[in-house]
Amino acid sequence: MARVVVDVMLKPEILDPQGQAVQRALPRLGFQGISDVRQGKRFELEVDGPVDDAALARIHELAETFLANTVIEDFVVKVEEPAVEAK
Amino acid sequence: MARVVVDVMLKPEILDPQGQAVQRALPRLGFQGISDVRQGKRFELEVDGPVDDAALARIHELAETFLANTVIEDFVVKVEEPAVEAK
């Protein structure tokens, strides 16, 4: 079992109203020094068996056709090492 | 300028209807071998100046009070190395 993460973010040229709303609120909450905030989606996929090139290609296809709207969004596929359980 | 990423995911014990909806649709779309899907939020913060311990502590506080609902969500704060522009 391995975990593959797909991060989906709006393309840089696309306005991000949610991110802007967060950014505008920061000074009011006392947080300075953050010049931009972008908000996107994170998918964690638990994959049966080894994550070989074929599996990654399939997940890339899945992200492209289903998880991201590639007209306005970019996505990144990453294999995450299984977190060592804290004893 | 550095980028700090805050990943916000529902706690494992909290039902994730969006993730389940994605997972149930996968076989219909021809994707097998994915046993679980969790969906969360990803925030990319552009931070002015160096990201030292004090800045990270502030961002951790920001995530705890504003970006995540810590009753039902966990969050992870990560400093992301500036991506080298592909030449």
UniProtKB/TrEMBL annotation, chains A, B:
Catalytic activity: N(2)-formyl-N(1)-(5-phospho-beta-D-ribosyl)glycinamide + L-glutamine + ATP + H2O = 2-formamido-N(1)-(5-O-phospho-beta-D-ribosyl)acetamidine + L-glutamate + ADP + phosphate + H(+)
Pathway of action: Purine metabolism; IMP biosynthesis via de novo pathway; 5-amino-1-(5-phospho-D-ribosyl)imidazole from N(2)-formyl-N(1)-(5-phospho-D-ribosyl)glycinamide: step 1/2
EC number(s) per entry: 6.3.5.3
Gene Ontology CC annotations of this record: cytoplasm
Keyword Cytoplasm: yes
Example GO BP: 'de novo' IMP biosynthetic process
UniProt enzyme class: ligase
SUPFAM superfamilies to which the protein is assigned, alphabetical: PurS-like
Localization, UniProt: Cytoplasm
InterPro entries, sorted: PurS, PurS-like_sf
Any one GO molecular function term: phosphoribosylformylglycinamidine synthase activity
Record key words, sorted: ATP-binding, Cytoplasm, Ligase, Nucleotide-binding, Purine biosynthesis
Record-stated family: Belongs to the PurS family.
NCBIfam families reported in the protein's UniProt record: phosphoribosylformylglycinamidine synthase subunit PurS (TIGR00302), PRK05974.1 (NF004630)
General function of this protein: Part of the phosphoribosylformylglycinamidine synthase complex involved in the purines biosynthetic pathway. Catalyzes the ATP-dependent conversion of formylglycinamide ribonucleotide (FGAR) and glutamine to yield formylglycinamidine ribonucleotide (FGAM) and glutamate. The FGAM synthase complex is composed of three subunits. PurQ produces an ammonia molecule by converting glutamine to glutamate. PurL transfers the ammonia molecule to FGAR to form FGAM in an ATP-dependent manner.
Assembly mode: Part of the FGAM synthase complex composed of 1 PurL, 1 PurQ and 2 PurS subunits.
Protein name: Phosphoribosylformylglycinamidine synthase subunit PurS
